[in-house]
Amino acid sequence: MILRSRTSRVLGVVSTLSTLLLFATCKETIDPPPISREQYIETYVEIIKAADEEPDSIAAWERAQEILDRRGITQEDLQAYAEHYLEDPDHLAEVWFEIETLIRTPERQDTTEADSGPEAEPVESRARSDGR
Hints:
mainly alpha, globular
């Protein structure tokens, strides 16, 4: 009876430890990345565009640091996001396609404010007198 009691306790402890170990290893893959997809994309787009405006790599690096600081994002956050999706290359390809598209697309201006501002001149409607 004592032998069964010890064996039961040992099996219970092993089972509990195995379960905890399983949860610990699963936790790494379940945790979301530290930043969202949108944050990752917007940050990289801003950094790449800013780097294109700078005269050298040191200035570009300093500008990137300013962008990260302003956004409250670290280089480690960017790296952790990419590492989180290492086993999903389709996701990373989509993200980088979107980054590339946003970099190549000129920024659109909001025409609603420009058209309705005080300097905007009213457009007169001219109806043709011949009915056409």
